[in-house]
Structures
1.
Amino acid sequence: MGINGHDIEVPIGEHHVVMSYTDRPGIVAVYGQKFGEAGINIAGMQVARREAGGQALTVLTVDSRVPDELLAEVGKAIDASVIRSIEITEA
């Protein structure tokens, strides 16, 4: 699957988080810690970028819904240009 020109392969589940931010060391640790503290398990993850220090795109598959407040907190902590939760459910 591709998103905004990035090749992405993650397990498809019911709950996903998509984020875009400037690539720099320590970002995965920041959102990993915040999701962990909130009791949200990351089941799959892919980080894609075109160049070091450029825009990174991360897609997470998570085990439960991510509250809007946590999305906002993570987005602020990593200075995300985009952070969205995607829910895939059966019709």
Note: The mean pLDDT is 89.
2.
Amino acid sequence: MAKLDGLEAVLDFLKGLQPKIAAQVAKKTLSLNIDPLPSDSKQLKGYPGYYRVDSGEYRIVYRFKPEEDLVEVILVGKRNDDEVYKKLERLLK
């Protein structure tokens, strides 16, 4: 079972959501420590080791470090706009 890091970013994001949606995103995020690379995950182009999974209309971006058995959640955002990727680019620069 992988360690899960970066939950502060998820909790901050969840505060603004309806409880049912927040629970779905939280469940998907927590499931990453059991299976860091689920079948619906995709590796991000141009970002080695970074992946994304979707939970409803939200996207969870995370980094998986298999050598440390660590999943680091980077950010959560809406799927239907590119804001998630703009935020990711700003975070990693």
Note: The chain has one domain: 3-92.
3.
Amino acid sequence: MSATLTFDAVSEARPGPRWLARWHRSWPAYEAWFCARGGDAGPSRAACGEALAEHMPELVPVWEELTALAGGSDRAARFLSTWCPPAYLGGCSLAALADADDVQLVRNYDLSPDLNEGLLLRTEWTGRAVMGMTEFLWGLSDGINDAGLSVALAFGGRSETGRGFGITTILRYVLETCDTVPEALKVLGRVPSHMAYNIVLADAGRRTASVELAPGGGMRVMPRAIACNHQDAPPRADRPGFTRSFERYANLEAMTKAPGDLMPRFLKAPLFQTRYGEGFGTLFTAGYAPLRRTLCLSIAGEVWHQSLDDFREGQRVAQYDSTSALVPAPEAGPDWSRAAYIDWAAVARDYAAGQGRAIAQYLPAPAQEAAVLH
């Protein structure tokens, strides 16, 4: 199996034409997923706005501005709120390490190349600078702000859901409103997540932390600033054999007991995954330096350095091969023009069962495509 993914670095202080271009590019796939997974049967637009106002009021103006840019439809508004969204799954390994001289947070992002936006976005939406890897077009799977606070997520390994927000919106909120790890922990303790997630944090004061979030609300602070795809409380994980979560966690435990740069160690097995055809391969490794407010992004064997204070727009194209190491690719990324025809419900079922396949295999024959949407 071989696939490509295009990564873009984009800077836009306020929501505008660059974000809108990304919306037009990605919304057909997201809309198909949202509808196939029952998103239209979820909370109303008014209920989504009320939930945001209650739990994350500082984000309400941004949500309204993005919704207006996206065309103002009820479906777009409900999708962007991420209040009680459909279930979604992922992988990832996380670790933060601090000593007297430095602090670092590193994560591997593990998923199918066909299911990642590939967007590193720098914004100043609430008046402060934030950069990170986007999910759901404005949320963040990892990132850093102008205070040096850094955060990253890993799926908690359980498929049940509760009343809460998509975790990527919560991480966006943390970076928009918090300066330190203690402040972030207060937010994570009061804003409910709709699924089980593990979060690792680090700040410029050399503080680190790891927490487990329960579906519908609830937080447990963990003893070490590491995380994979299981949680301490039962049930620990739905499919630990497929994700190899416990093996990766043991590796992280040993790793963080020794000083040194975490980044090179994340680029080796068992943390680095190459099962792209199964929907579980490492798409990128992100290393955040809170003291310098920088990001080192390893993609397809290339290293891409970014700074919050000196952000450089650009593009990288990666090719992922299940049978070999990552190599750069000159080709374009996935063609999303047929995304609305993909059987997204089948994708989710197979992925949860540990039987993921290439996204192209979920497309109907060309002659059948016209019937899929009617």
Note: The first strand starts at residue 2 and ends at 11.
